[in-house]
Specification:
Blueprint lengths: L1 H14 L3 E2 L10 H8 L7 E2 L9 E2 L4 H8 L8 E5 L5 H9 L4 E6 L6 E2 L3 E5 L5 H10 L5 E6 L5 H11 L3 E10 L3 H4 L13 H10 L10 H10 E8 L6 E7 L1
Parallel strand pairs: 1-6, 4-5, 4-8, 5-7, 8-9
Antiparallel strand pairs: 2-3, 9-11, 10-11
The structure holds S-adenosylmethionine (SAM).
Length: about 250
C-alpha cells in the first residue's frame, strides 16, 4: 500500500504543472528581495510559508550572510545543492540570483512547484540508505561550490549530513547549516538519547580540532573534518532560533 501511494505521488508529480521561472522577468537584484518574492523564511520578512492564511510575518534574515559570502559568484558557473526545498522558494531564489549556476534541490516530499533549465529537483529521503543511494546516482561525479542543509533539523540527521555532504563540496567551497541550534531549543528535534552533543559544540570542537563523544562520527571521521574544514563562520539571524554556520572546505 505504501509503495502504491509512493508511485501514485511520483506519477502525479511528473504530470503536475510547474511554474517555469525562466519565463519570469524579475527586476530584483538582491537576494533578500528574491527570498521575499518566492516566500522563503531565509528572508528578513516573509509571509509564513507553512500557513499562508496566517497574517504573520517571519524571517531568519540570512540573506545578508549569503550575500556577503557569495555576491562575487553572481555571474559565475557553479553547482549549488540544497537539502530541503519544501515547495522550492529558496531553490527558485538562488536560481534567479545565480543565473549561470546549476541549482540542485533535494526533498522527500513532492511539493516542489517550479521548473527551470538550471533547476534539478531530486526527490529522495536522505535519512534512508535507499534515498542516499538514489541521490548518489543522480549526483554521481559532481562537486558543489555550495551545499546547504535546510532539511529536517533533527540532531542525528544534521550530524550525519555533515560527514556525508562535506565530501561533495569542492575545494574552497562551503557547507552551510541553517537553524543549527533548533535541536537545542526544541527537544523533539533531539533524537539522540543524549548520545550526541549539540551542533554548536560540535562546531567548536571542529574549530579547535578536539575529539568529542559521538556514536555517529567516528574518530577517523572527526579527523577528516579537522583536516578538511578550514574555517567556520557562525552568525545569528533575526530571531532567537536563527543560527547559521558557514563551513569553508579546504
Ligand atoms: C525547512 S523546509 C525547507 C525550506 C526551503 N529550503 C526554503 O527555504 O523555502 C525543510 C524541508 O526538508 C524536507 N526534509 C525533511 N527531512 C528530509 C529528508 N530526510 N530527506 C529529504 N528531505 C527532507 C522536508 O520535506 C521539508 O520540505
Amino acid at each position: 500500500m505504501k509503495l502504491l501511494t509512493y508511485f501514485y505521488k511520483r506519477v502525479a508529480f511528473i504530470f503536475k504543472k510547474k511554474i517555469n521561472i525562466d519565463k519570469e522577468e524579475l527586476t530584483y537584484q538582491n537576494l533578500d528581495e528574491l527570498f521575499t518574492y518566492y516566500g522563503t523564511d531565509k528572508a528578513k520578512r516573509v509571509r509564513n510559508q507553512y500557513n499562508k492564511n496566517l497574517d504573520i510575518f517571519i524571517g531568519h534574515g540570512y540573506s545578508k550572510f549569503y550575500e556577503n559570502h557569495f555576491n562575487f559568484l553572481k555571474n559565475t558557473n557553479f553547482n549549488l545543492l540544497e537539502i530541503g526545498t519544501w515547495f522550492g522558494a529558496s531553490t527558485a531564489s538562488f536560481c534567479k540570483f545565480f543565473p549561470n549556476a546549476k541549482i540542485f534541490g533535494i526533498d522527500k516530499n513532492f511539493k516542489f512547484k517550479y521548473k527551470s533549465k538550471n533547476i534539478n529537483f531530486i526527490q529522495c529521503d536522505i535519512s534512508t540508505k535507499r534515498g542516499l543511494e538514489q541521490l548518489s546516482n543522480k549526483i554521481y561525479g559532481k562537486k558543489f561550490k555550495i551545499i546547504i542543509d535546510d532539511g529536517s533539523h533533527i540532531l542525528t540527521h544534521i550530524i550525519k549530513n555533515i560527514i556525508i555532504f562535506t565530501k561533495y563540496v569542492e575545494r574552497s567551497g562551503f557547507y552551510i547549516i541553517e537553524d543549527f541550534n533548533l535541536p537545542k531549543y526544541y527537544k523533539y528535534l533531539n533524537d539522540s538519547n543524549n548520545k550526541e552533543i549539540y551542533i554548536d559544540e560540535i562546531l567548536k570542537n571542529i574549530k579547535q580540532k578536539k575529539y568529542f563523544k559521538s556514536d555517529i562520527l567516528s574518530k577517523s571521521e572527526q579527523k577528516y573534518l579537522f583536516e578538511t574544514i578550514e574555517k567556520i563562520y557562525v552568525y545569528k539571524g533575526n530571531t532567537k532560533d536563527s543560527d547559521i554556520a558557514f563551513l569553508k572546505v579546504k
